[in-house]
Amino acid sequence: MDSYDAPELTPRQDASSRLKDFFIGATPLQKRLESVRKQTSFIPTPPRRKIPQGSQLQEDVDPQKFAVLLHKQWTLYSLTPLYKFSYTDFKEYSKLLTAFIAAEKKKGLAVEVGDDFNIKVIFSTLMGVKGTERDPEAFLVQILSKSQLPSEHKEGKVLWTGWFCCVFGDSLLETVSEDFTCLPLFLANGAETNTAIIGTWFQKTFDCYFRPLAISSFNLSWMAAMWTACKMDHYMATTEFLWSVPCSPHSLDISYAIHPEDAKALWDNVHKTPGEVTQEEVDLFMDCLYSHFHRHFKIHLSATRLVRVSTSVASAHTDGKIKVSLKKSSYFFLFLHSF
Amino acid sequence: MSVLRPLDRLPGLNTATILLVGTEDALLQQLADSMLKEDCTSELKVHLARSLPLPCSVNRPRIDLIVFVVNLHSKHSLQSVEESLCHLDAAFFLGKVAFLATGAGRDSHCSIHRNTVVKLAHTYRSPLLFCDLEIEDFRAAMAQRLVRLLQICAGHVPGVSALNLLSLLRGSENPSLEDL
After folding, report:
1. Is B7 contained in some domain?
2. Which of B30, B77, B78, B113 to mutate to test the interface with A (most CBs of A within 10 A)?
3. Hey, where are the domains in chain A?
4. Which pTM does this prediction carry?
5. In angstroms, what is the C-alpha Rg of chain A?
6. Which Gene3D superfamilies does UniProt cross-reference here (chain B) (predicted)?
7. For the residues of A4-54, what is the DSSP string, one character each?
């Protein structure tokens, strides 16, 4: 395993392996063994996902808060459970994090006169951004620049946003003991330096670990199928795919754009079982695109690697960058569930 | 359509022939080189093919073991293997066929789910081996394993036959598989 990066684990597997060291009691250990036994089922079944009917949670989502999450490019990280994290201590966390960021920024510089930090950190909960009732609440962290003039009272510009969430994490929640909060997905938008500083603070304070999450081509094709399946009144963008062909000296990129209504028509022909998406349907959908391309260009797209998928609903890149463009919040859960 | 049969030719003296089938030419070539480097009492012959059926005109020895190499990064390789499987006589699947899946280490590049390949191997009742053929050490270890498998399938190991080995390999898997 020396010649390339360590294999990326899904958040589910990552949390289970790290929790091994934390259990001392018999009952949590038994629970964990039971969940591991359930996961490694020897019967090979192709994956099958349900389209979640998120209508019962839709009302809780605050549309104003929600607008923060749309139309931004998020970088994904997977996160181990947070130790002794409390939703009531947000003011405390804000103060500590502000001080930490200011200290990090001042490191190496000459001492500045002035006690006022010019940034402010806000923690807030995102109500309703979760899959089932058992999932812990999502929360949002924002770094705002504070205006220098005391006369202005309006909120400063948002410099950096990050949010933590857990959607349909039932199998993870079973293995987690009382003191841990399980929020395996972290999304960040803003400067890399800020992400690194915030990450360091969380790691020190809650004894967790961040790891960049890469999206495999397999998952990208699932996302393409599920997002195309969304019923839309009007489409804002074409459906686009990007493939990377590994060849020397420079890799070749193939981009394939489809009219979104055609893609939806293709999906409707392929999709048979209502309320559920199966592996065969996703494979058939992608195979239709591949064979169409092959007929015209004699290139086997199935031998290349899918790198980016972009639809009117959302777009995702294999490096772990996603962007959600949709206002309808019910479809939002759809994309989070794709992980 | 010519169908490959396991016993339609006479065996060569102290010769064992393996056929590697897969779309990834570079990986197959490297695996073949690794296998030929191994110390072996039998004379090894390695044939490479992109897909079956093989051309009839070539005079080839009896094939003792066929290994289908599937690259988990490429759906095309899986489709090519599935099409090739139709051109094999059923008698081959009594221990003389194995599946090798490569590329599982780099999960972000995978476009095939692991279970798809497991299901394929289970449908054809043949062993499935996982190996990252791009890493030299893993490739050398797999080459050693394949040479041993080949010797058994060619009948050069006294006391073990291909069918015997197949039932031994299946016995070590979870018994619940037998119910399917």
Report:
1. no
2. B113
3. 48-212, 217-318
4. 0.79
5. 22
6. P-loop containing nucleotide triphosphate hydrolases
7. SPPPPPPHHHHHHHHHGGG--SHHHHHHHHHHHHHHS-SS----EEE---T
The domain in which residue B92 lies consists of: 15-169
The pLDDT tens digits of the residues spanning A232-258 come to 777 778 889 999 887 777 888 999 999
Establish if B26 belongs to a structural domain: yes
Residue A8, pLDDT score = 42
* pLDDT surpassing 60 at residue A45: no
Complex ipTM tops 0.95: no
Q: Which of A79-83, A269-273, A286-290 has the largest mean confidence?
A: A286-290
Residue A302: list chain B partners with CB under 8 A. Answer: 74-76, 79, 111
Report if residue B56 sits inside a domain. yes
Q: What is the CATH number of the domain that holds B116?
A: 3.40.50.300
Yes or no, beta carbons of B108 and A218 under 8 Å apart: no
pLDDT in tens, A68-121: 778 888 898 888 888 888 888 888 888 888 888 888 877 755 444 444 567 888
Residue B132 falls within a domain, yes or no? yes
- Cβ of A44 under 8 Å from any chain B Cβ? yes
Chain B interface disruption, residue of A9, A76, A218, most B CBs within 10 A = A218
Report the mean per-residue pLDDT for chain A: 76
Residue of A256, A239, A329, A240 whose CA lies nearest to A291: A256
Give yes or no for a contact between A234 and A328, defined as CB atoms under 8 angstroms apart. Answer: no
Distance in angstroms (rounded) separating the CA atoms of residues A309 and A244: 12
> For chain A, first and last CA: distance in Å?
25
Residues 187-246 of chain A with CB under 8 A from chain B are 214-218, 221
A263 CA: distance to closest CA in chain B (Å): 20
Give the number of residues written for chain B: 180
Q: Under a CB-based contact definition with an 8 Å cutoff, are residues B117 and B99 in contact?
A: yes
Alpha-carbon span B113 to B49, nearest angstrom:
25
